[in-house]
Design goal:
The chain is built from 14 helices and twelve strands. It is an alpha/beta fold and 337 residues long. The chain has two domains: 153 residues, Glycogen Phosphorylase B (Rossmann fold), CATH 3.40.50; 148 residues, 3-Layer(aba) Sandwich (Rossmann fold). The strands form two sheets. A six-stranded parallel sheet has the order 3-2-1-4-5-6, sandwiched between helices. Helix 13 links the parallel strand 11 and strand 12. 40% of the residues are buried.
Length: 337
């Protein structure tokens, strides 16, 4: 009796995502991994990212390998032997795999250069969309520039670009796949994400103080993360204002790496924060969330009903949303939990 030769298994799809920075932009690109794996089960997906954000990318379900690219640091000392050695190692890692598709989700010259250096056919943005930081040379550096609607949310832009590159239709709400270790907490804790890299995105400190006092009176404990000296000073000032009236109900978290910060955030019951990377991590973790915008740009990066964010809302105002508006938004979210 002869045995039929088994049919060969189809080769696994190999995809490289290029999304270097910043933290919020990296978070917005996470749902692409789930979309690709839904369309191509078994695909192997690698990701090129700046080292500062590599920890959080490694937490995304379905990411096979993370290739760290220190372009920001290299550009400051490109002439040094150390940087030249690191660049050679990066090029070696980038060329070690033949990719079926290399997708530049950033649209910058530097990200398109990285995509071009990789071993595979490259795809990227053909033009700017509203609010994107697209740079024209990126169109000519990739093999296949892809056009899309000018008015598009950052999450949808990445999903549309990947779907067009790999010829599939994405469906449903974005799934970030961000893994975290949830720890039990002795109190109902609400996190105030008060810091951001842009001063014009900050919310007035007096409003943080007043909001903290209102919510402490309702039984909430307030946690304040901080990065750097400026955020540290603001965090302690807000905590001090709250604790003068509601002693022990506000705490400043110690400085911690992105891994520990993600786990600590995931262990809390909600987040109120300005437009920042940490607030976007809260969205990815599906935490009840209110995002504060001083500009009419929430449609571009904030949580949206169309994305299935049932307990996450954005509020806008000029020069900033009022205390009452933010407090009302949180009460709306809390009642829906």
């Amino acid at each position: 009796m002869s045995l039929a030769t088994p049919a060969p298994k189809p080769a696994e799809l190999r995809v490289l995502i290029v999304k270097l920075s910043s933290l919020g932009d990296v978070v917005h690109a996470m749902p692409v991994v789930h979309d690709i794996l839904r369309a191509y089960p078994g695909a192997l997906i690698d990701w090129v990212v700046e080292p500062a954000f590599a920890r959080v990318v490694r937490r995304v379900e379905g990411v096979n390998a993370v290739i760290e690219c220190s372009l920001r640091r290299w550009s400051k000392k490109w002439w040094s032997s150390e940087v030249r050695a690191e660049w050679r190692a990066f090029r070696l890692a980038l060329g070690a795999v033949k990719y079926d598709a290399v997708i530049d989700l950033q649209g910058l010259t530097k990200s398109a250069v990285v995509a071009r250096l990789a071993h595979g056919v490259s795809y990227g943005m053909a033009h700017a969309t509203d609010g994107s930081s697209f740079e024209a040379p990126a169109r000519w550096l990739v093999d296949h520039p892809i056009s899309m609607a000018a008015h598009v949310h950052a999450v949808d832009r990445s999903r549309q670009l990947a779907a067009a590159a790999l010829k599939f239709q994405f469906q449903g709400s974005p799934h970030y796949g961000l893994k975290a270790t949830v720890q039990s907490a002795p109190h109902r804790t609400l996190v105030f994400v008060h810091g951001t890299s842009r001063a014009d995105k900050l919310w007035p400190q007096a409003d943080w103080n007043a909001l903290g006092l209102r919510l402490a009176a309702e039984g909430w404990h307030i946690a304040l993360p901080r990065t750097g000296d400026v955020e540290r000073e603001r965090a302690y000032a807000i905590a001090s204002a709250i604790n003068k009236v509601a002693e022990g109900q506000a705490v400043v978290w110690p400085a911690m790496n992105l891994d520990d910060l993600t786990d600590r955030l995931a262990s809390c019951q909600g987040v109120i924060g300005v437009d920042s990377g940490l607030s976007h991590i809260a969205v990815a973790l599906k935490l009840p969330n209110v995002q504060i915008y001083n500009f009419p740009t929430a449609w571009r990066t904030g949580p949206q009903p169309a994305h299935g964010h049932l307990h996450q809302v954005s509020v806008e105002g000029s020069p900033a949303p009022s205390l009452d508006v933010v407090a009302a938004a949180w009460h709306q979210v809390a009642q829906a939990i």
